[in-house]
TrEMBL record, chain B:
It comes from Streptomyces pulveraceus. The chain crosses the membrane at residues 36-57, 63-84, 105-128. This is YidH family protein. InterPro entries: DUF202, IM_YidH-like. Residues 27-93 form the DUF202 domain. It is found in: Cell membrane.
Amino acid sequence: MTTTERDPGLQPERTRLAWRRTTLSCTVVALLAVRQALYGGAGPAAIVAASLSALAWLGFLRVAHLRMLGVGTARPQPLSPRGALTAAACTVALAVCAAAMLF
Amino acid sequence: MNEFVQSLRLWFAPQRIRDEGDTPDYRFSLANERTFLAWIRTALALIGGGFAVDQFLPELAWGIRAGLALALLAAGVLCALRAVNHWVRCERAMRRGEDLPVSRFPTLLGLAVGVVAVAMVVVVLFGWEGR
């Protein structure tokens, strides 16, 4: 925090930690996705599925990183709808990967 | 339904949310953001559960396994989409000074998770050997 007046509720810190927790959850799911993709050997389809899962994870990581920087200012702006939408889209992409790998 | 279409439009035209009302205290926006993240984590947990059912229960018959996994994955997707929708609606309500939206989604999600759990118990008790 670069501010001189301290927010007694530590809201920005709590928000940053919430992003961190969420990133960790996303990492676990992405690892499960890659494990699932490579379980039956590394064929072309498996490589594509693993790369797509990794891409969804990187997308989430980027949103989280930008937001954690954004929260570190004195009066943080609200989360942009684009950021929210990207985070949700990455989550949905992981689920779609999972459903595709079922068959 | 009309309200849903309205908030759907807000998803894709983010600048429009700033046209409405006054900017609330940033702490309220951050609290709303944390609620959104908690829902995203719930969605991720459900999706992780879907992966886990498929990967760690190889003794189950394929149909049961795929059904359980798909139910969990679908719940996760719904949860993620609903997280964005609820976040947008809360943000707009705060800007307009209205009451926060109420929702029956938590009840529905609770019921769905309960049904999956009961199905799992039934499978363990009766159908474990079926391949």
